[in-house]
Each structure stands twice: as C-alpha cells, then as structure tokens.
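User: Run a structure prediction on this.
Assistant: Running it now.
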Amino acid sequence: MFSSGLDDVLLADAVRDGRPDVADVALEVGASAARLGVPLHEVMDHVERAYAGKPPSFEATRAAVLAWADEALVLHADISCEDPLTSLATTPYVRSRLAEIYRGAERDGHDVAHRTALVVVELPRGHAGHELEQSLRALDVAEAMRAVFAGDETVARVSPRRFAALVGRERADFLTLSMLRILLERALGDDARPRLWVEELPPSSDGVARVLAGLSE
C-alpha cells in the first residue's frame, strides 16, 4: 500500500493474472493516487513494481500517467475560476473551456488544433526574485495580454511564471504575437525578456491534461 493509503495490490494482481483490463486498473490507480496526493514518481514506481522486474506495458503506464495528470489538474488550483492576484482565469477553467471546445469539435466534425491554440508567455526563471517583484511582473503580464486579447479569448495564469491565452488560430499570427511582445517588453523592461510561443493543442481531448500539466509545472 502507498504511504498515503492507495492500494498497492490492485495493479499487480491484474498483471499477474493476465487480465485484459490492466490498462483500466492502471487508470483507476493513477486517478486514485492523484486524489490522495500521491506524487507521480511514486505512481510510476508502483507501475514498475506491478510488473515484477519486467518492463511495464506502454498502455498501462500511459493510462496511469494520464489519469493522474487529469485528476491532479482538477484538484490543482483554487476552487475559484479566477486567480486572486491577476484576476485572470485559472488552469481548471482553461481545462473546462477546452472540454467544451473539443465537444463542439466532435459534434461538428472539425479539428480543434486547426482552429484553436494557446499563446503562452513565460517569465524568465532568473527573474522570479522577491515575491513582491514577481507579483508586480504578473500584473504587468496580465495587463499586456488583456490589451492584446480583449475579446472573448480566455486569458489565464497557469503557473507562477506562465500565462496562456486560449485563442482562435487566426489570433496566434505573427502580427498579434509581435504586438504582444512589444507590450510585454515595454511593461517589463529590458532586464526581463519573457519567452513567448504558440502551444499546439492535441488532436483529441485525451491529450489536454498532459498539455496543461506541462504548462502548469
């Protein structure tokens, strides 16, 4: 059993018995681990132990990791959908919006990645600095992103140093990104040059948790 109380036997029994639902069991183990606060590296150790020295199957590993990431994101941030410092959206709200977008895409038969993207801003790690300074920089980034994405786009703070705007693909163009970069450089000064990129969305909703988990690190 995990130190936090998660049953350590379920997956090992499924693997030993050669059951066809090993991936389903791994999925439940991963989700349960996240709910109990078990870190991902401990979940991966558990998957390896379940295979008793043999390489774990890709399907079981993938199921456990994605289930853990999916559940952890749900539990990750404030109950509120709004970051208390910047008043930007939170990661769970972005996840909820993406779920709606993918459902609509499935219904209408189009590819989300062709119509939607995430524009990401990352403050330099070396300039995290004092908590007050970091907070002021976050407010500057929020103001710049709201100025550029002033329509119905969702602008969120996904980690202390990262911010993301969920936008239509046409709003992730060179001109818009250049305008955002200029506003950020004016607000932050030459000593804090942020990194700016377009994060591609996965072809299906199955990959959303992994993308958001990566951005939230």
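The first helix runs from residue 10 to 16.
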